[in-house]
Amino acid sequence: MARASFAITAxxxxxxxxxxxxxxxxxPPLKQPKWxxxxxxxxxxxxxxxxxxxxxESYRRKKWLGIAQRYPAMSAQEQQRVQHRMKxxxxxSPEERKRAREQYKTLQKAPPDQRQTVKQKWQEYKNxxxxxxxxxxxxxxxxxxxxxxxxKSAPAPASPPSPLPxxxxxxAAPAAPLTAPPAAAGPxxx
Length: 190
Fold this sequence. Notes:
mainly alpha; 0% strand; elongated; 8 helices
C-alpha cells in the first residue's frame, strides 16, 4: 500500500512539475553566435552587417544566419543583390528599419490582388530609366506646398531620399513609396 501511495504521489509531483511555468524558465533561450564565432563563409556572406552584428537581437541573427546558409547556393547575381540589400539595410536608421518592417507587414496582410498590383507597379518602376527614377525620388522628397493661404506653418526641411531595400527573402514590393519622408507633425490634439 505504501508503494502505491508513493507512486501516485510521485506521478502527481511529476505532472505538476511538467505543467508548471517554472519548468519553462529553466530552459534558457538559444543564443546566436557573436561575429567572432561565425565561420569564414558566414562572415563573407554577412560582411555588410559586421559592424552591428553583436548588437542584433538573437532572433534577427538567426534570420540572417538562414540567409547566410542559402548564400553559397545562390547565383553570382543573387549573391550580389543580397549583399547590396544588406549594405542598404545596415545603413538605415532604426526608425527607417521599423518603417520598412511595418510596410512589409502591411503588404503581407493585403489581399492577393492588391499585392499583385503593387508587384506590377514595382516592376514598372524598376524598368524605368535611372533619370526618371531620380526625378520620381526628388518629387516624393519635396512635397508641393498648398496654394491656399490656410496654412502658414513653416515647411519641414526635406531629407535626402533613403532607399529602403525589399527584404532579401521575398520579391514583394513595398506598399507605399519608400523614399517619401515622414509626414510633418502638427500640433498635438487636445
